[in-house]
């Protein structure tokens, strides 16, 4: 609509200007022809001879010679019998005057009034002034509004074509957007496998569709991830809840046969496991949601030396930590990684756990290695999945939640680092890498505890 109005305004101005210039130029041309015809006729006058019959020049066929008393002395064949063409009489100092005269019987005439030179007047008419009128019937294009009507019709037609072309082009160019919108409207949470059509080429619409499809892929992956998480969580919670309910129902149904103290003790153990699972789930949910945690510069080596001796009384822990490794992070979360790794190593170690903290490739590298049976290569990624507990772990600690390593990896990722299982001569080796905040510098030797 806006384009059509602007086109109409622009063409209206152009059309009005063109009409004015065309009519003005046509009228000027007609007057020049009339002036030339009058001048040619004046040039044919001779002293003492009657005025010759004027020769018709183009469309200028109306010529009259009029004296000062208004009498028509001579006229062309087309003007014979006609009244005086005009009352124009050029003033002194201007031999030519143009005008438009409308005749009594209808129609208008473009007339040029031309005074002969004074020498001609003196020689031919003995000083009596005469005037020559030369004219033509006014062209129809100047007589009525035909030109304006044709111009207006052309403007309206052009405006309509421009509006239709703009509508057609806009519809064609926006068709991919409409298809993308319709496809997006049909996609529901229950079926995120559908994708929007991608137009060919490298237009903005193609990039939009490609971005939308990538977003849908991530959304589908996130929804599937949440569904698996909900399914696994419900399964993991159902088992201890079913056990707790069985204990309580047995105590109610057989009060004389069931030891109440044993039942309460077993119920408390199940409740503690449920509490551990729920707490770990809340931590994991906050990490996966990207909730920011307050971070500060902290000495990772000092944190390792503080946490290592506190988590295992069964085996010996050897710490080799290079001092002065500063990272930026949340102290509680990084301490939880160390606690989970040490607790895991303590469950599987035979007699020794080695903890190191050093620099490597511009990163702070913390390793926790036990001398147990180790982890098979095919299980080294599975152990970081939620609720995944290998057979040995279930045997050694039946009450675990299976979330510790998953939480640890998420914390490492949130701090811009990584947590993986690497090869070790004996047992399992977990390697935590975090970006250093300080510049590398030489320091004293490591401490051993």
Automatic annotation (TrEMBL):
The keyword Phosphoprotein applies. Its EC number is 2.7.13.3. Keywords: Kinase, Membrane, Phosphoprotein, Transferase, Transmembrane, Transmembrane helix, Two-component regulatory system. InterPro entries: HAMP_dom, HATPase_C_sf, HATPase_dom, His_kinase_dom, HisK_dim/P_dom, HisK_dim/P_sf, Sig_transdc_His_kin-like_C, TCS_sensor_his_kinase. Transmembrane segments: none annotated. It catalyses: ATP + protein L-histidine = ADP + protein N-phospho-L-histidine. It holds the Pfam family HAMP. This is histidine kinase. It comes from Microbispora corallina.
